[in-house]
Amino acid sequence: MPGILYQLVVAAAICALSSGSIAVASGLNATDSFLVCLVGAGVPPRLLQTPASPSYSTTLLSSVRNLRYVTSDIQRPVAIVAATEPAHAQAAVRCGRRHGVRVRARSGGHDYEGLSYASLDPGERFAVLDLAAFRDVRVDSARAEAWAGSGATLGEVYYAVAAASRVLAFPAGICPTVGVGGHLSGGGFGTLMRRYGLAADNVIDAVLVDADGRLLNRTTMGEDLFWAIRGGGGESFGVVLSWKLRLVRVPETVTVFTVRRSINQSASHLITKWQAIAPALPSDLILRVAVRSQHARFEALFLGRCSRLLEHMRVHFPDLGVTQSDCEEISWIQSTVYFAFYSSSKPLELLLDRSGETPRYVKAKSDYVQEPIPRHVWERTWSWLEKPEAGLLILDPYGGRMGSISPSATPFPHRKGNLYNLQYYSYWFENGTAALEKRMSWVRGLYEEMEPYVSKNPRTGYVNYRDLDLGTNELEDNVTSYARARIWGEKYFKGNFERLAAVKAMADPNDFFRNEQSIPPLPAAKGWGSI
User: Fold this and answer.
1) Residues 259 and 393 in one domain
2) How far is residue 264's CA from residue 257's CA, in Å, rounded to a whole number?
3) Is the pLDDT of residue 401 over 70?
4) Least confident of 115-129, 157-171, 305-319
């Protein structure tokens, strides 16, 4: 966009600077005024893209993970700000507020409903603040701590931690291309959660740009806001640029296995038993299940040697029939490759590949299961999984450390009393309305069928498995309606939702940071006193 940027630079040069802001030249529309403001605030023009820019589409799609949100009927950003330093993010917020352009921050682009880079409101004027350049990971192995930028991927964090120490790790998710920012702000769980809790449980500081454009850390933002961004969705409260992580200890050798069982090999029986066994296993062991087509795949990580793992399986789950030949003894960093790429022998450098899997169309939903689902239900579920348009089910067991942390310690409330998280996941590559309708119908249909057997009042879900079917926001007097947002909010956050809204009213009372499922400000009439 050389021509546009030239005009912006010229406009910025002739605008008067006052208290670090730009007096907007008359005759410019809101978007142009926003861009002029950015240039005047010191953001290099090369970091700005508009729909008229040759690189706009390439930049926008650079980390789009769900092709459902690149169609023509989705509102795209009026600009992309590829910030490279905190001052650029501060300028985006300040200029956005001044000129009526909202800001949506994007780290890895994995939001299941595309809310970090697209809007369902055709009248929404927003800019994407792309944090891909905030990807530094600095490890202090002596203190067992690390700082990670929101734009870093989980794979980059794992690689950096392992390069610094063979006995340190960070408890987060399986997919290595997921961005740190979104993952941590939604809670974030993975194969170490039963021993060490969520990724968000292991955050000890953060750097955030608030709605006034101020750069804050844990001390200056206060404990309430620090509480909110660790599981309540950071995009509702500001732009988190980096996170200080508490690293955890792992043995030099861990053990993994994958055991596949078909319908004809008692898969229904094994899944039924697994529901009570997996959450009660020792916290050093996680045994998760992926169910697809006519098979169930049981995947384990144990923080120890194969001999001890086999002993646990013989005592707790002999029906699965795990043998020594099923086990692999590897390092923790190899286990991250094992779960991401289905092989421990692939090079560790794959963790640094930010492009990852081929972009696809995605729809997912989630549940929490608190009582074992009867076997006859699992038998009936196979008919759903055998359909040509079927996706898969992913069952992640809780228990262990997940059951001992208070449900109000962070906004993530799904602790004691939950056996496992159940994810309904569908992805496809073919374009077109017919494919979309079939896949969406499959996910929604199976989700509806499972309703009697999952959590109730409310039926809960995991905010990192974003699902707009649960409800979307509406505005009242130009702020997000609290009453409307409760419909979906209490499903993600249960009793923590009201406190999140109280923090929102304190940190962003004018509701600058908002999207289809952002936290609303708590109405003043409800009150909350000092939080």
Assistant:
1) yes
2) 21
3) yes
4) 115-129
Sign of the Cα pseudo-torsion (178, 184, 185, 190, in order): positive
- Quick one: 113 and 221 in the same domain? no
Q: 318: left (phi > 0), else alpha (psi -120 to 50), else beta?
A: alpha
* pLDDT-based confidence at residue 298 (cuts at 50, 70, 90): very high
**Residue 266: left if φ>0, alpha if ψ -120 to 50, beta else—which one?**
left
For 440-490, write each residue's pLDDT tens digit: 999 999 999 999 999 999 999 999 999 999 999 999 999 999 999 999 999
- Measured between alpha carbons, how far is residue 233 from residues 275, 388, 396, 504 in Å? 29, 35, 21, 11
- Per DSSP, 261 falls in state E
What backbone phi and psi angles, to 5 degrees, belong to 4? -65, -45
CA distance 89 to 132: 12
- The overall average pLDDT reported for the chain is 93
**498 in any annotated domain:** no
**H-assigned helices in 100-204:** 154-164, 180-185, 193-196
Beta strands 21-22 and 17-18 are: antiparallel
What integer pLDDT is reported at residue 358 of this predicted model? 82
Is 492 within a domain?
A: no
Choose one of 455, 470, 485: the last residue of a domain. 470
Domain at 150, CATH number: 3.30.465.10
Distance between CA atoms of residues 176 and 469, nearest Å:
27
pLDDT at residue 262 above 70?
yes
Provide the domain count of the chain: 3
* Ramachandran bin of 213, using left for φ above 0, alpha for ψ from -120 to 50, beta for the remaining angles: left
Q: Are residues 426 and 455 in the same domain?
A: yes
> DSSP states of 58-106 as a string?
HHHHTT--BGGGGSTTSBPPSEEE---SHHHHHHHHHHHHHHT-EEEEE
pLDDT tens-digit readout, 322-343: 999 999 999 999 999 999 999 9
Q: Are residues 288 and 324 in the same domain?
A: yes
Residues 85 and 98 in one domain: yes
The pairing of strands 126-130 and 79-81 is parallel
**Mean per-residue pLDDT for 331-357?**
95
Residue type for position 431 = N
The answer to the question of residue 452 being in a domain is: yes
Q: Are residues 321 and 407 in the same domain?
A: yes
- The pTM of the full predicted model, rounded to 2 decimals, is 0.94
Residue 208 CA to residue 226 CA, distance in Å, equals 9
Domain extent for 24: 2-130
Residue where a domain terminates, one of 101, 130, 159: 130
The confidence score (pLDDT) of residue 17 equals 29
The span from the CA of 290 to the CA of 10, in Å, is 57
Indicate whether 90 and 61 sit together in one domain: yes
Per residue in 6-44, pLDDT tens? 454 444 433 422 333 333 344 689 899 999 999 999 999
- What CATH code is carried by the domain that includes residue 9? 3.30.43.10
